[in-house]
Amino acid sequence: MSDPRNLPTCIGIILDGNRRWARANGLPEFEGHRRGYDRFVECTRWVRDRGIKHLAVYVFSTENWNRKAEEVSYLMNLLQEIAQQPLRKLAEENIRLRFVGKLEMLPQNLQEAIVRNEAGSKHNDGLTVWVCMSYGSRQEITAAAQELATTGQQITEQSLQKHLWTADMPDPDLIIRPGGEKRLSNFLLWQAAYSELFFIDSYWPDFSETILDRILEEYATRERRMGR
Length: 228
Fold this sequence. Notes:
Layout: E1 10-14, H1 18-24, H2 29-49, E2 54-61, H3 69-84, H4 86-91, E3 96-100, H5 108-121, E4 128-135, H6 137-149, H7 157-161, E5 174-177, E6 196-199, H8 209-221
Helix pairs in contact: 1-2, 2-3, 3-5
């Protein structure tokens, strides 16, 4: 276990490689999504148990709407199922749930489940999980700029940041992307300006506590100069 004095305040994770994991294991691609979302719920507890206060997870991007209708429909049903049961259970464990993205694009029943989860966990003071759903960072920045423009305020980094969907979230100290790809794919572009990046070959459903601890140990050794 890494030194708690060197723990990050906020980490981000891109849940990548679910479909490739399923193909590699001779399973239907949809099963990869289910295993991936189950691992997300497990990982939330691992992060909480290590004393980290914020976790941002990229579960469905604005670009994912362009996938085949059958896959999108399955994902929406799966997210609805997770929001009704596993996420509600997390809320009972002093975990706060926040949802960010173009949530109006989601099915009505999923939007209602999101409202219930946020309301039911708003007083929790343990780990805060930022569920990035129907999320795209360029869309977030554009929406913030449009909203700020209507206020007549001077446009600065600080004023723009206050209008981001993630305005209350600390910038991630580190971002993890499994699956072998080495890019951010429109995830927290503004917030990741000085994030430490960890790209791993393992697919997301194979992510483990051991991998998380190895990343945290390496993070603790990195010198973060923030441009200085």
